[in-house]
Amino acid sequence: MSDVILTMKGIDKSFPGVHALKGVDLEIRRGEVLALMGENGAGKSTLMKVLTGIYKKDSGEIIYEGKPTEFQNPREAQDAGIAIVHQEINMMSQLTVAQNIFIGREFMNGKLINDQKMNEEAAKLFERLNIQIDPSEIMDNLTVGKQQMCEIAKAISREVKVIVFDEPTAALTETEIEELFKIIRDLKAKKMGIVYISHRMDEIKQITDRVTVMRDGEYVGTLITEKCTKDDIINMMVGRTIFEDPKQKSNVKPDAPVVLKVDHLCAGKMVKDVSFELRKGEILGMAGLMGAGRTETARALFGADPKESGDIYVDGQKVVIHSPQDAVKAGIGYLSEDRKRFGLVLDKSVSDNTCLATLENFRKGVFLNKGKADQVAKDYVKKLKTKTPNVETTVGSLSGGNQQKVVIAKWLTRDCDILIFDEPTRGIDVGAKSEIYQLMNELVNQGKSIIMISSEMTEILRMSDRILVMCEGRKTKEIPIEEATQEKIMHAATMRK
């Protein structure tokens, strides 16, 4: 077919202990958005890394613009017109936004780098993206969502013919997602081949033309988007139907004690006089748009960021939290939205990471009781259905969803009574989401209490017993789940005080 720009045939790739790709086929057409779907660990990202020269295939064939091709590194792929926007942010945190976008291809003024020119060109890109980012800002100062938009701008800044989006909207607001979709439609109109990896079914139906599904490193099949249903796709992915019905009523007992009370918490520009309570056995959903201050509230509560004022009570007793160590001692665990920066040590094993918050329980004199640590890690691998060859595997080699499960295991090992889950299913497929939802329900049934920050409305409505809504650093409303609707939440999320 003349509209086929790239074909992958029989791609095979193995790592020590893992057969990641087993004869996978993929076809990318000009002027088309192809969804690539599958559970975490299905091999989607590995396949794209083979395509872009990050990994070398063991066997199979790649045909690009009619010619057999194999890129030796990502630079070769980029020079040929193939770019990838990775799910995990891949920027130099101490450089400016513009320096990151044009790294390796800087504008020069004689022998000096022309930062002014790079700032001007980056500003043009952001104008096209219709977002407000200062090109001279240090990357590390941006929110996760804005860092992701910079990744997208960096890819689009090149003359590309094929572009891969790997979970591009995981950290974006609804407005940013709409702007991204406008860009994708513009790229599609210019006959670019687009691969779109996402677990969000509504996005797949909205933006894609075909859906290719992988499972356990194998090609399952391809569907025409407009002719298939959400259940068709899910059944191909996991072999079962996943239901996401909203919760009808709170599961918290009327006389459940208050385990956490936050009074007039203030921290920087993003946490302004926030007060709330959390009851035993409750899932308190925190909703709001990007920049509402939800993560900042959680970090101030956990001692990761300094608070300016306010009081925190655990089980009726006032506690002083100056650091995460203080929070952990008070029985509070925090699952960060940025698992790679704050949740894991990527070059350490699954076992080491699982025991990271409870090392004192695994000491044997001055040494670590490796046998005990490994057994605990194995128990949680089994319980959470973590896909890993063994507990000695480095966490950095696991898929995003399985990394998330290791972070959860870390805090379950600590046995904290209060757990803060910040975007717990970000970048996780529907099957793994369902498992994490089930786990959260088991935890509250055991008497744990959870604060769940989520940007997914269906997740908030499905899991919460009560919903706290924030806007611009302030709590604007609390809604019992029995009264909650998407409309009420969105209204409160845009309610400026």
Short description:
The chain has 497 residues and is α/β, with parallel strands linked by helices.
Strand content range = 25-35%
Question: Percent of residues in helical segments?
Answer: 25-40%
CATH secondary-structure class of the largest domain: Alpha Beta
Structural class: alpha/beta
Low-confidence stretches: none
Give the total of beta strands: 24
Strands ordered across the widest β-sheet:
6-9-10-3-11-12
Bulk shape: globular
Question: What is the CA-CA span between the terminal residues?
Answer: 57 Å
The CATH superfamily of the largest domain turns out to be P-loop containing nucleotide triphosphate hydrolases
CATH topology of the largest domain: Rossmann fold
Whole-number tally of structural domains: 2
Indicate the mean pLDDT: 89
Please give the count of helices. 17
What value does the Rg take, in angstroms?
23 Å
Oligomer: single chain
Architecture (CATH level 2) name of the largest domain: 3-Layer(aba) Sandwich
List the helices and strands and how they pair.
Layout: E1 4-15, E2 18-29, E3 32-37, H1 44-51, E4 59-64, E5 67-68, H2 74-80, E6 82-85, H3 97-101, E7 108-109, E8 112-113, H4 115-129, H5 144-156, E9 162-166, H6 174-189, E10 193-197, H7 201-207, E11 210-215, E12 218-224, H8 230-238, E13 258-267, E14 271-279, E15 283-287, H9 294-302, E16 309-314, E17 317-319, H10 324-329, E18 332-335, H11 339-342, H12 350-354, E19 363-364, E20 367-368, H13 370-384, H14 400-414, E21 418-422, H15 430-445, E22 449-453, H16 457-463, E23 466-471, E24 474-480, H17 486-493
Parallel strand pairs: 3-10, 3-11, 6-9, 9-10, 15-22, 15-23, 18-21, 21-22
Antiparallel strand pairs: 1-2, 1-4, 4-5, 7-8, 11-12, 13-14, 13-16, 16-17, 19-20, 23-24
